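Recall the central idea of this unit: under ordinary conditions, the amino acid sequence of a chain determines the structure it adopts. In this exercise we apply that idea directly, starting from the sequence alone.
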Amino acid sequence: MNPPPEPRPARLTVGVVGAGRVGPALAASLQLAGHRPVAVSGVSDASRRRAAELLPGVPVVPPAQVLERAELVLLTVPDDVLPGLVAGLAETGAVRPGQLLVHTSGRFGAAVLDPARRAGGLPLALHPAMTFTGTRVDVDRLAGCSFGVTAPEELRLAAEALVIEMGGEPEWIAEEARPLYHAALALGANHLVTLVAQSMELLRTAGVAAPDRMLGPLLGAALDNALRSGDAALTGPVARGDAGTVAAHVAELRKHAPGTVAGYLAMARTTADRALAHGLLKPELAEDLLGVLAADQNAGAGHAGGGDDGAEGDSSR
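Accordingly, the structure predicted from this sequence is:
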């Protein structure tokens, strides 16, 4: 005779407040683990389309009704909206004792949920370190994704279980370290998108027909080398101290894409500092290189009344 099946952990009804790119994907992932999405809130047409695609048949209702129906509530709203949303839900009595409240903000830890906790809610901060498209591909990308987790000690096991059920890997982040943790991710991921987009635009200007195909293998190898070796993976004219090449780069950028100059100079200076600190850039070459960068920075400050700064601001988030 076959042994009796192992009892399954308790399945939860799941609600989503804020049907942006993240919430429906997490709820769909929890559904695959056996939990049951029962309600979602969303105002825009895009939010409703995402909910319909990732959570078909789940009703779209106001936030208070999401909390009425769900044992586990995903609060997936923009960072700046989150504190007011939590306070409002707690003040109106929408939070029930024993209800799990999960937010996905990288910036905040569990303390932002204190109003809900005082009302009996169980606070969890589960931030997936992943970029989201708002489509079903996001559910697959959660497999092996790290989650920045902050929660009271008594809820540690619950937080770990939910992350693992979504296919992720929990990484514990101290409450006070959340802003630094989030800044690190934004520096790596968000700014990478800006750099790649600028690089593709410049390649098109240079006549490259398929910049994505050219950059794909190069950037893939650079990312792999950086993750494996850190600063030892630095290559290129800045790390070599080729001051003349860097000066030519800046001259061309000023001519064809002045909005990229400020970013290029900032990254070149940072790269030079790191290459010098790690012994990759010879001090005698660093002096000439940094002199070129300083001269170009001063030239840019006096050019068109500092218009480059405004252009750079337009191209980044």
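The CA atoms of residues 201 and 207 lie 10 Å apart.
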